[in-house]
Amino acid sequence: MRTQKYSSVTSCGINGINGVLVEVEVTVLPGLPSFEITGLGDSAVREARNRVRAAIINSGYKFPEGRVIASYAPAWIQKSGTGFDLALALAILEASGQIVRPRGEEPLLIIGELGLNGELLGIPGVLNRILTIYKQRKLFYVLGPLDNLREAELVKKIRYFGVEDLKSAVTIYSGVKMTQKRPAAAKKKKSQLLPRLDHFFGQKMAKRALTIAAAGYHTLLMLGSPGCGKTSLASCLPGLLPDLNEDESLSVTMIQSAMSKGGIIDSLVRSRPFLAPHHSITGAALIGGGSPLRPGICTAAHLGVLFLDELTEFPGAVLDLLREPLESGQIKIARAKEFAIWPARFLLIGAANPCRCGYSLEPDDRCRCTPNQIRKHLHRISGPLWDRLNLCVKMQSLSGDDLLKSLTVTVGTEHETAASQIMVCHDIQKQRSRELGLSFHYNSSLPVVDYYQDMKIEKQAIKLLGDFAEKKAISARSYHNLLRCSRTLADLEQSLSVKTEHVAEIMQYRLDLNTLL
Amino acid sequence: MNLRLATAELLVLSALEYRLSHRIRCKLLKYSGSMTRLWNLLHQRSKSDEPAEFDLLRLCLKNKGSDNLLSQADTWASQGIKVVSVVDACFPRKLADRKVQISLLFYRGVDLSLLRERCVAVVGSRSLNPYGREVTAEITRQLCCKGYCIVSGAAEGADSTAHKEAMTTGGKTIAVLGCGVDRVYPASNKSLLANIAQSGLIISEYRPGTSPAAKNFPARNRIIAALAEAVIITTAKTKSGSLITAKLAHNMKVPVYAIPGSVFANEQRGCHSLIKEGYAKIITDLKMPELNTLVLETRATNNDANEAATYQRARISKSSLVDPGQVQLPVALNQTERKIFELLIVGPATMVRIADYCGLSLADTARILTSLELAGFMSNRRGHYELNRFS
Lengths: 517, 391
Description:
Strand order of the largest sheet of chain A: 11-14-17-10-18
Number of domains of chain B: 3
Radius of gyration of chain B: 25 Å
CATH class of the largest domain in chain B: Alpha Beta
CATH topology of the largest domain in chain B: Rossmann fold
Radius of gyration of chain A: 28 Å
Oligomer: heterodimer
Largest sheet of chain A: 5 strands, parallel
Strand content of chain A: 15-25%
Helix content of chain B: 40-55%
Structural class of chain A: alpha/beta
Number of strands of chain B: 11
Number of helices of chain B: 16
Largest interface: A-B, 33 and 31 residues
CATH topology of the largest domain in chain A: Rossmann fold
């Protein structure tokens, strides 16, 4: 009887943003020389045959003769990407008897992409894979590309062996201790100069609205003439929002790692993501989709900002996909074969022109759009989505006088004041949610009915809101959102209770389509 | 009987409508004497003395098929659409004029006798500010109480306000459409047009089913101008469609009146230029002594006391309104609020402008504006705050 030519190693793939443990099995059977991979792999997985064969031969090993079959188990899960290359190569070498993992060695997780010369290349999603095994507490040792060393070391409890090529990988696999090389120090990124609020002259109302929106993560719509500064003001947000804390940072880094296209992550992401997709975006790109399921822009903007410039130009069906995540802070996608839940608690900032020509908010009579044309223009955004836009600010172009002033910007404290106000406001909200035992902390997602008492709204403020609701037919959702926004405003001014003045101010930032016609 | 007659009339019309000029239409109709007779003539052999266009019409009728026309005409007739031609006795002479050139008129509503009433056209722009709305409604009320029938174009804004106000005051109103009388345009006027069909008259020169093409509207303005004894432009921006009506009316020697406003208000620019260029006379008092000079005799049924009573009734139904002639600043205003009023009387202003003017923070301004808005003193329109009533 011939000896069994079989080997099995553990690797890990990515499904959405979570890792999935995959057992890479290889057997060499007698027969005509061939090499097959089974287990629902995509093109990148199938093409591994050429990469692995070349890497093995070019590293001085022998590619086994006979029928080589590789199987990725569990075989029913779709696999994608190049992260299985190294595991496959090591399994082939072991199955063909060229290397052996000594008994008693700790089990290893093996990940990494191979180059044709046997070089080991970095892959996206290393952090996700490592966090997965950390949570499952099955494996504690990982063998992977040297390029990903810094990313892997973000999880302290896992020992990561970073290697440069297949040969060194074989050395580690065979149980020989090696000193850990360090990857070349990452080039220090030039600290990017973020746009500041005081770079932009005027538009005080928009700045105030932006501060309130950022403080409580309330959705904001900026309406205004072309060139009045909607996009510029929105670009100040990354600089205004406070950095992520440890937990938030880990989940954002994880999402970015899974969605990065080859970029190497070497530290936790501290600044909040700011995503501004073009309006030609598809539904699958916005909330996620495809096969296998991949997260979309909404998830990438988790805990950050989703800025939709030219909101009225987005396809209506695509915009309406935002309705559920705006409410729940999550994206749930169900397909016949798969089901995924991804986090998507983002700050939605929209910018749009108030009519087709764009000038209906100007004091002069440049705009000749009829009320019907304006209605048509605005109705590209569906009613239910309008209902979810909490704050709205109408912006006019700067006057000639102000234009001149805007050229000589003096750096003031406006930006820092707003940023610190927002930071304090975030802290207050965190404190409140901790006291209430909530898992999230922004006012925008506070369940009003359950925590009405804790929102501490004064009786007179409620009465004012009641008067207002009676005059304008507003939905229960907008009523609650008015309360939430008022709470944020009170937090911004560090007031314990929500007073009439807070409600009164918020009302001026409420969206009322009728006032736009 | 009526239905059959209407059907026949509509049928002829479909044939007539076939790219024939006003002159030829009139010639054919005059030759036949009535539309029913024209229809019958078309089904007979050609005669030597008849106009040459008859053969063209016969060809057209053959192409379309009598049955098709009949079923279409039935549908129209069942919707209550009727038609009157230039040879009919009840056809308003004003519309057959050289400058109007209408040979067929479709209508829906009570009956054509409304066209013989003394009509005044009240037209204005589609986007209204509070001033425009108030002034349109008020002048309509005044006119209705004097027994005038209000003619307007059933467009959004001033036109709709005029129609609505005329009906609530209990007056008569005629809507002149730029599309078929069975069409609803703009869609927001669905209930308004249904109401007018109940108690007033909807007319159009276009055959039923015609969609509201942009070119139809300036053309329909000539009907408005021709029907009215006077045309009143309540609000108009520069290049407004109402200015076309005014100029058409001026050419037809129909007196035109325009209502002035603040020199800062874009909504009144068109009116101001009409007055300046001599197309329109200015209206300085809504009690309208100007219009009274136009009224040659008071209608027998409408003596002064009667008129005053009707007006009062209309007024009471609008009791929330202050008499526009006597707007005073609300008594309970404090210093800042007074200052805001001062600014807004000049013209609409943004929140930032108000804050700068009063020397307040943006937050405080927002608070005060909310309270003034809730009290009904002002409203926000397109990012600008404006007073609900002008003094």
